[in-house]
């Protein structure tokens, strides 16, 4: 997904970070449901505190969970 995002950007069609974050979250397998639930809570908290839950944070969280 990261490669495709970069390729699209090089063609002049960028993907909004919020949209990319949603794509990442929706693409993980069901075995990550508890992680997704945690990230959903983080997203809600981030909106309240006006902080962004970036795609990088989502990917790092998923990788940490995998490890």
Structure description:
The protein is an all-alpha fold. It has one domain (16-66). Helices cover 73% and strands 0% of the residues. Helix 2 (17-27) runs parallel beside helix 4.
Structure at a glance:
With 67 residues, the protein is an all-alpha fold. It has helices spanning 2-10, 17-27, 33-49, 55-66.
**Which class best fits the helix and strand makeup?**
mainly alpha
Q: Secondary-structure element order, as H and E?
A: HHHH
Unreliably modeled segments: none
Q: Mean pLDDT score, rounded? A: 80
Helix proportion range = over 70%
Radius of gyration equals 13 Å
Distance between the termini: 20 Å
Q: Estimate what percentage of residues fall within beta strands.
A: under 5%
Q: Sheet bearing the most strands, described?
A: none
Number of strands: 0
Instruction: Describe the global form.
Output: globular
Quaternary state reads single chain
Q: Count of helical segments?
A: 4
Number of domains: 1
Short descriptors:
single chain, mainly alpha, 4 helices, 67 residues, 73% helix
How is the secondary structure organized here?
Blueprint: H1 2-10, H2 17-27, H3 33-49, H4 55-66
């Amino acid at each position: 997904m990261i490669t495709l995002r970069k390729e699209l950007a090089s063609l002049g069609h960028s993907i909004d970070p919020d949209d990319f974050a949603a794509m990442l979250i929706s693409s993980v397998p069901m075995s990550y449901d508890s992680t997704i639930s945690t990230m959903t809570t983080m997203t809600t908290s981030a909106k309240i505190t006006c902080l962004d839950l970036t795609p990088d944070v989502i990917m790092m969280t998923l990788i940490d969970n995998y490890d």
